[in-house]
Amino acid sequence: MTAFQDFASIWLSILFEAIPFVLLGALVGGFMEAMMPGDLLRRWTPRNPLAAAALGAGAGVLMPICECGVIPVVRRLVRKGVPPHAAVAYMLAAPIVNPIVAISTFVAFRAASPWAVTGLRVGLGFAIAITAAMLVRALAGPSPMLAFSEETSETPRLPFRKAVPAALRHAGRDFIEITAILAAGAAIAAALNAWAPREAVRGFAGHPVAATLAMMALAVALNLCSEADAFVAWGMGDFSIASRLGFLVLGPMLDLKLLAMYTRVFRARTIAILVSSVLLLVFVAVLAVGWLWPALRAVGNPLMP
Amino acid sequence: MTLSGIARAGRVAATLAWSFFLVYAWMTGRLMLIHPSYRWLSLAAAALLGAVAVALLFEEEGHAHGHAHDEGHAHDDACGCGAGCQARSARTELAFQCAVLIPICVSLWLGRGGLSTQAMTTRGVRLMPAAQGPSAAAPTPAPLRGADSPADAWVPASPAVEEETQPPLTLSDIHSHLLLGRRDELEGRKVIVLGQHFVDDRCGPGEFCVVRILVTCCLADAEVMGLLVKPKSAFTPRGTQEAMEAANRLRLPEEPGAMELKMRIQEQGPWVEATGILRAMRDRRGQMIYTVTDAQVKNATPPADILLYPRPMMAW
Questions:
Q1: Per the CB < 8 Å rule, is B56 touching A169?
Q2: What was the pLDDT predicted at B291?
Q3: What's the confidence (pLDDT) of residue A277?
Q4: Is residue A305, in this structure, part of any structural domain at all?
Q5: A94 SS3 class
Q6: How much is the pLDDT for B160?
Q7: Residues of B with CB below 8 A from A108's CB?
Q8: A106 CA to chain B: closest CA distance, Å?
Q9: Which of A211-215, A264-268, A291-295 has the highest mean pLDDT?
Q10: Mean pLDDT, consecutive 10-residue segments, chain B of 316 residues?
């Protein structure tokens, strides 16, 4: 009973925290569907794939939505003609490059190289999002990437008084669908969070490769909000800054609840490519940061040697 | 009523259920599972979900074709996909609607919820570190102290500077100081810490930890943090005393029920308040941690909200 209470409390807390953001994402998506002309985003998106992916990742700064809310927005973006790889770049980058996450990371690491950690988190998030998006585009080939039709949604222009209820109805449908999937993903996450001995990972802290893998596994298992995860990472002082960066960069891009929610946007093959690309890129980037850390710290942290 | 009609009614019911439930969770204290600064978002979401439910309620029949958006065609109100597709997508949608109601049912059955003492052990209790990074640990573990040599644990530290003019620090204050890198302001300060009594291998004879669950965002990121306490005089918390007496009444430790009884009493997590002076010291694992020394300890009543919510952004 106690074990179930721990699980259920964590499960509910993840949902309480995520529901407002899922709804926000669903509302943004709903208004996008009801009010945005069908070809507008397609016309705005650069034809060059790399430029499109970079624009997608950069849009995370202007349209900051956390990882729970980003899925309904991405669904509507691709329906409105945004190329899937640009949407992937936005989906991966938005929860990391947004100003709120940058500030919380800076505050959390204020006592330990805040400029370097924040800069590396945002920079790696941006670079990995673009690279992963390009890899998905290259490896997925001509096969369909999306879990639904790739035909662009050409919603007829509605007068404002009709567009608002229509947007709310789109949001309502998306909210129910995404929340159902979120609840399933969060249940698995809560079980791991409640029952897996977290202390066990501390045993890997001494070895760079094992520490990086342990922190990446922890990021996937714990399903923390990107606004709060920096404070948890700060507390793991046994681990090097580089391995903690693995936790900070990977968590907002890939965790169990996100993995479940990805199924509402992408086909299984696309998800497999996406997940492997992100894991590999984060692992390599973190090992490189660990190797270069003394130099990076000196450059990125001039005020706090 | 057709399956599509049921799915349409289900949409309204599911959104309304979450709208009412979020308000109910706020009124009944169930939202204590998330940080107070995020709770207003739940109320805002409840209001917006109410608006969404109203919009769905007045949805025209022709628009309510209930696609699950995975049927291989675009979300188009005039898709003309046929009765078979309509029924299949309605069934999928009904399954989603049932799934979103499960958390509400679990919460109503569970009550306010929270983490047990068992969860503290699983998560690991982190004692407030007196140094950050690998330097926090001794190169080789410090030898275990004997009961008669408590002074072995002392390490050279700055001279005791008791600032009588400053108010005593709480666990939350100490956490903020550590987060902001103000370790130099902690040594020698008077502290009053309220938390749950916890003992593990880091505690010497007569020592214990006072721990609280810190929540930065929601319970998923909860960390169990605390301070080692060296009491001025021997102290046995209320629950432990009862457990010891109950266990002593049993003839054999292996007697059926003995272990369950001890665990049940331990589950209550006795609450204590320790008042003393904060010092940086090494624990039995060789880690540099903050310790409440010369502590006067008393049994305490748990606060209304047993979780502690640090405000790191405000501190900044």
A1: yes
A2: 93
A3: 96
A4: no
A5: helix
A6: 47
A7: 179, 312
A8: 10
A9: A211-215
A10: 84 95 91 87 94 88 48 46 70 90 92 74 80 48 36 42 68 84 85 87 85 85 88 79 57 49 53 91 85 91 81 54
- The two tokens of residue B169 are 């620090």
In a domain, A169, yes or no: yes
**Inter-chain residue contact A168 with B51, CB threshold 8 Å:** yes
- CB neighbour class for B163 (10 Å; exposed up to 12, middle 13-18, buried from 19): exposed
User: How many domains are contained in chain A?
Assistant: 1
- pLDDT of B265 reads 46
Domain that holds residue A50: 2-300
**Which residues in chain A are closer than 8 Å to B129, comparing Cβ atoms?**
237
Amino acid at position B187, single letter:
E
Q: Three-state SS string across chain B, please?
A: CCHHHHHHHHHHHHHHHHHHHHHHHHHCCHHHHECHHHHHHHHHHHHHHHHHHHHHHCCCHHHCCCCCCCCCCCCCCCCCCCHHHHHHHHHHHHHHHHHHHHHHHHHHHHCCCCCCHHHHHHHCEEECECCCCHHHECCCCCCCCCCCCHHHHECCCCCCCCCCCCCCECHHHHHHHHHCCCHHHCCCCEEEEEEEEECCCCCCCCCEEEEEEECCCEHHHCEEEEEEEEECCCCCCHHHHHHHHHHHHCCCCCCCCHHHHHHHHHHCCCEEEEEEEEEEEECCCCEEEEEEEEEEEEECCCCCCCEECCCHHHHC
Which positions ≥6 away from A295 have C-beta within 8 Å? none
Check A222 against B220: CB less than 8 A apart: yes
- A80: CB partners within 8 A, 6+ apart: A32, A33, A36, A38, A40, A41, A42, A152, A153
Size of interface A-B (CB pairs under 8 A): 224
Please report the pLDDT score of residue A132 as a whole number.
95
Q: What ipTM did this prediction achieve?
A: 0.81
pLDDT at A283: 96
Domains of chain B: 3-110 (no CATH), 117-315 (2.40.50.140)
Q: List chain B residues with CB under 8 Å of A196.
A: 122
pLDDT of residue B240: 61
